[in-house]
Write a structure and sequence with these properties.
This protein is α/β, with parallel strands linked by helices. 44% of the residues lie in helices and 15% in strands. The chain has a single domain, classed as Alpha-Beta Barrel (TIM Barrel). The chain has an eight-stranded parallel beta sheet with strand order 7-6-5-4-3-2-1-8. Helix 1 runs parallel beside helix 12 and helix 7 crosses helix 9. The chain is globular and about 45 Å long. The chain starts with a strand and ends with a helix.
């Protein structure tokens, strides 16, 4: 049985230590009895150190929102996986649609980051997904298959089971639109079938696949009830402790 994982991606919000710590303390008080769900938050880099110190006394794990695939050097503005590891970061989000669209990150670059994260024992949360025009053209599965092949190139059976995949229909991020639970399950099931085909059934069934498209308290339970959806990667609703907790509780209730 796969353990659900709920990730809160704060994006470029709550970037001052005082406000980040206040939010985290509120969340800690709510989730202290959560046992059947892994809870992860990804704050901005500016507050990682402060948040890690507070989270140590809780059941909440910390993710970075991005990293580079080199450990040091002349890479202005980038974050080293070595820095993250030494700070105590346990997870990293890779290939988020905003990184792909705004900063033109390619599957090849994301693959390099993925290989590096795994080598550093940082758990990767790797995002894949299609744009609205691709869905309307009937190309969703074609896009997903291409991303799966190229983003996960040269990844072993052992390493894929350590990796979390986040399916984010890009047309549903920050738009208020949400894929129906049935639409989400169709693609999650397809992703799992690609894993089974490439590796084997045992490996494919071990990989956790999150849904990441405008998850809110009022739709979380319906989404998480689907067989191949193992939690969510949450954006806006993770910025407020009570709404994020309701999403976590929806996943816990189904276990």
């Amino acid at each position: 049985m796969r353990k659900p994982i709920i990730g809160g991606n704060w994006k470029m919000n709550l970037g001052v230590p005082s406000e980040a710590v206040k939010m985290l303390n509120n969340l800690i008080s709510l989730v202290r009895k959560i046992e059947l769900v892994d809870v992860v938050i990804a704050p901005p880099f500016t507050v990682l150190e402060s948040v890690i110190k507070v989270a140590k006394k809780s059941n909440i794990k910390i993710a970075a929102q991005n990293m580079y695939f080199k450990e040091n050097g002349a890479f202005t503005g980038e974050i080293s996986p070595n820095f993250l590891k030494k700070m105590g970061v346990e997870y990293v989000i890779l290939g988020h649609s905003e990184r792909r669209d705004i900063f033109y990150e390619t599957d090849e670059l994301i693959n390099n980051k993925l290989i590096k994260a795994l080598s550093m024992d940082i758990i990767p949360i790797v995002c894949i997904g299609e744009h609205l025009h691709q869905r309307e053209e009937g190309k969703t599965k074609e896009i997903i298959a291409y991303q799966m092949e190229n983003t996960f190139k040269n990844i072993s059976k052992e390493d894929i089971t350590k990796t979390i995949i986040a399916y984010e229909p890009i047309w549903a991020i920050g738009t208020g639109k949400t894929a129906t639970p049935e639409q989400a399950e169709e693609i999650h099931s397809y992703i799992r079938s690609l894993l089974v085909s490439r590796f084997n059934e045992e490996v494919g069934n071990k990989v956790r696949i999150q849904y990441g498209g405008s998850v809110k308290p009022n739709n979380a339970e319906a989404i998480f009830s689907k067989d191949n959806i193992d939690g969510g990667l949450v954006g806006g609703a993770s910025l407020e402790a009570s709404s994020f907790y309701e999403i976590i509780r929806a996943a816990e209730k189904l276990k």
